Amino acid sequence: MLLFRVGDVPVRLAPSWWFGSLLVVALYTPLVSALLPEADVTTSVVLAAAFAVLLGLSVLAHELGHCVVALRLGVPVRRVRLFLLGGLSEVVRAPRRPGQEALIAAAGPAVSLTLALVCWALLLAVPEGGATWLLVAQCAVANAAVGVFNLLPGLPLDGGRLLRAGVWACRGTRSAGTRVAVVGGAVVAVGLLVWALWGLASGSDDRWLRLGVGVVTAWFVAMGATAEFTSDDRRSWPEGLSVTDLMRPVLQLPAESPVSAALAASAGRGVVLVRADGVAAGLLDTEAAVRLASAQPESPAELAAEPIRAEIVLLTSDSPDEIAQHVNEVGTWQFLVVDGEGRPTGVLCLEDLHSALTAPEGHGTSTVRPFRTG
C-alpha cells in the first residue's frame, strides 16, 4: 500500500504490518487492563490498537529520518517500507564513506529519542492515570523503545551500522566492520530471546508481549545480519586485483560501420560506436550483433549498440570495493571504464571478472572468494 512520497521516494505499507499490529493488540490488551483497572474490554482493545498505530508511526518517523539524511548526503533511496514490527529505508547503494554511514544510521534513533522526550514532557501537563495519559505515555514508550532498540550494536540495527562505521574508519575496509557488526547482531538476537524467556519465567505482567516481540525481533535481527554478511561478501574484491587488470582494450568505430565488420574488428576488445558528430552511440552488444549479422550483415552496427548510461560507466579512480558493489547493483554485462577526463580507457565484462575471480591458484589471478552477482 502506497502511503505517500518523500520527493520521488515512495513510502509503502507491507501486508505483514497488519499482522504485526494485530499481534501487538492481542498481546498488549491484557497489559492495558492491568494499567487501567477501571477500563472495560472494549476500552482496553481500543487503547491497545492505539498503541499499535503509535508504534507504526514511531517506526515511520524513524525511517523518514534515515531517508531524509541519506538524500541530503547524495545517497539515493529506492523506497521506505513498513512491515511486521519494523521498517526499512532501502538505499540504492551503500554509503561510500564511514562518516556517511554513521550519519544516516544515527538519524533514525535521533528522531525517535527526540519524539520520546517531547512525549515525556507532555506527560507533565496531562493528569495521571486516565486514558489520555496512557496514550501519551504509550507514544513516549513506543519512540523510546524504537530509538533504544535500534542503538543495540548489531546488524541490521542502526547501532550495528554505527559499529560498522567505527570499525570501517579504524581498519579502512567496510567488510571488516561488517564482520564485527554481524557478530554483534548474533549477540543481540540471543539477548532478545533471553529477555523474552526471562519475562515468561518470572511471570511479569508483560510476559506474553515480551515473548511475542522478543521472538519476532530476534528472528528479524538474525535474518538481517545474515543478509548483510551475504551482501557485503558479494561486494568484496580480492586484494591485488585491479580493474585495469581485467578490462579489455577499447576500440572506437563509426556507428554506421557494417555490423559484421564491427564484430570482426572487436576480437576480444570492447567497441564504442561513435556517430559522425562525435557523440557515442553506445557499446557494441556482441550477442545482439551476432544475431543482426546473421540476418543482415551490412546493417549499421549502431542497431546492435547498448546505450551508454551513467550507471554502466566506471571511473579508473573508483576503489575496487566501489566497483565491485556497483557491478553487483547494475543489471548489465559490460561497463565502460573512463579516466578522470572522461576518456574511454577500456571495457569491463562480467565474464572476464568472473573468470579472473574464480581462477585457481597458479592460473592467472588467484582469488580469495568467488564474486557473485544478483
Structure description:
With 374 residues, the protein is α/β, with parallel strands linked by helices. It folds into 2 domains: 2-234, no CATH class; 243-357, CBS-domain. The protein has 12 helices and 11 strands. It has helices at 15-35, 41-72, 98-123, 131-150, 158-171, 174-202, 207-234, 243-246, 259-266, 286-295, 320-329, 350-357, and strands at 2-6, 9-13, 77-83, 86-91, 250-254, 270-274, 280-284, 305-306, 313-315, 334-338, 344-349. The strands form 3 sheets. The protein has a 4-stranded mixed β-sheet. Strands 5-6-7-8 form a 4-stranded mixed β-sheet. Residues 360-374 have low confidence and may be disordered.
Outline of the structure:
With 374 residues, this protein is α/β, with parallel strands linked by helices. The protein has 12 helices and 11 strands.
Please tag this protein with its features.
alpha/beta; CBS-domain; 2 domains; four-stranded mixed beta sheet; 12 helices; 11 strands; disordered C terminus
Please outline the helices and strands.
Blueprint: E1 2-6, E2 9-13, H1 15-35, H2 41-72, E3 77-83, E4 86-91, H3 98-123, H4 131-150, H5 158-171, H6 174-202, H7 207-234, H8 243-246, E5 250-254, H9 259-266, E6 270-274, E7 280-284, H10 286-295, E8 305-306, E9 313-315, H11 320-329, E10 334-338, E11 344-349, H12 350-357
Parallel strand pairs: 2-3, 5-6, 9-10
Antiparallel strand pairs: 1-2, 3-4, 6-7, 7-8, 10-11
